[in-house]
Amino acid sequence: MQTERYARAVIEATLHPNSDVDREIEVRSRRQELPHRPDRPELRLIVSEGAVRQEVGAPAVMEEQIQRLIELAGEPGIAIQLLPFSAGAHVAMTLPAFIVIRVAQHGLATVYAESRASSLFLTNREDLDEYTSLFSKLRGAALDEGRPTRRLLEDVLQIHGSRKD
């Protein structure tokens, strides 16, 4: 759910030398179309507070990114929760980013785990159960979707906006 400028800043800072930044941007841009398709999937996102407070790119880039999250949180079928610093230690602190993907009409399920060195698709039942449980625990530790998450996003948006001066 990254804006192009935010994604570019992240990719440029983290990709291996000789990587194709524009290709990576293109791949992420195609994923941006998902929430706007008539057959869009249900999306449940948990974003750490650090991810919205950390200045990636210029303050204007952060404003744009946070505004995008606020807009997406108002879309049908999209739930965004912030995992606040006040949640303290949590079950996924040592894990790379992960996505639990379920395609009910086809009976498919996988976990996609992404790290700097590799990306994995985990399909065995034990992994699916473990990551589903981890996601449920994170949802319990995160702020409720809706007003609490929106309020924190708006507060952080103001902070980034004040840095432009």
UniProtKB/TrEMBL annotation:
Record-annotated DUF5753 domain positions: 2-153
Name of one Pfam family that matches: DUF5753
Superkingdom assignment: Bacteria
Cited InterPro entries: DUF5753 (IPR043917)
Name of the protein in question: DUF5753 domain-containing protein
